[in-house]
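Bumping with the actual sequence this time:
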Amino acid sequence: MLTPIDEIANQNHLQLIKAAISFLPPQNQRALSLLIKVMELRNLSAFFQKQGSLHACNVGGTPASFPEMLAEMRNYCDGPELELIDQLGQMFSMMELYAVMMQSPEDGSI
């Protein structure tokens, strides 16, 4: 699964070329790998020169929230990373709940 930045960088079917690298002679693997990275950088540079920035989900709208960012990152994690992302999400939820509780009136009515 490619991230949005990978999709931009890997234009021109660079993923197909990457898949073929391991089938090449060792002396050609390094050169082709470096060429691919240069092409990825060129694609990214051209994108940011033309577009300016990436937008998460709601293009042009308000920035994505921290929980939305964690949910997106979760798609690219496994094992311990996935547990860490889930813990961060739970901690953020608890902090939001605490903030709401601190804003409620002192007399206990909501």
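The tokens above came from a reply further down the thread. The CA atoms of residues 52 and 69 lie 20 Å apart.
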